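Weekly structure sync, notes
Attendees: PL (lead), two postdocs, one rotation student
Agenda item 3: pending single-chain targets
PL asked that the sequence for the first pending target be pasted directly into the notes so everyone works from the same version. It is reproduced below exactly as submitted, 271 residues in total.
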Amino acid sequence: MNENLLPAFQRLFEVVHELREKCPWDRKQTKESLRHLTIEETYELSEAILEDDWDEVKVEVGDLLLHILFYARLGEEVNAFSTEEMIETLTAKLIRRHPHIYGDVQADTAEKVTQNWEQIKQAEKKAAGTVKKSVLSGVPAGLPSLIKALRIQEKVQSVGFDWDESGPVWGKVEEEIGEFKTEVDAMEEGKGDKAMVEAEFGDVLFAMVNYARHLGINPEDALEKSNQKFKRRFEYLEDKVDEAGKDLKGLSLEEMDVYWEEAKSREVKGS
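Predicted structure, written out during the meeting:
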């Protein structure tokens, strides 16, 4: 074990407690006031990961660690739990849920590990008298919808409710796209309504998330990378229009597309 780790952690622990006692801002915070800041820090870490910026990952992981220790301090103040109890609880859970490492269970694939994890988790809840009827009860209601769709599919996959191959999943995507187009056509002909179009569009997205999962693609990461790519290209377009002394609003879509294609070509060439 790194001999510098424990002293460094102890010093951080002491600083967090000292700030809680002496800093006006830190003294004012509650778990409720920190909640949205923790979410913000998580997204900042996510952005650093997508940008493959290890220096920024280090900073953002540290910020999240600060939040974790702060919540632990708040727990201590109301005698809910101590930092030691939090760490011990986590350690015990990791050991219980990895019987292929700390026991004699066989699990040679990541999928088998996930199945074991979910089964052990359900058994723990049942023993504690907190088990709910649905496998999906562990999916937080507050998750963003794209991530929630992925977690729902991962949960049901852990109990065998899933296709073994990606072929049938793509068939489902095509089926949902067809149903979506049917409702769009009906609405345009005055025979349908927006609610049905919206419902079918949601089904298309859900099916696409499922297909991405089967391909080993995280749909949230993929969409965010597309967001960033679009942002880069559009900002290039804006810069070029400004350099030409033109007004973006006065250009036709065809004129804008010239700059857009330039941006795409630059990315392909790596410039």
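Discussion points:
- The longest helix spans residues 219-243.
- The mean pLDDT is 91.
Action: rotation student to compare against the earlier draft before next sync.
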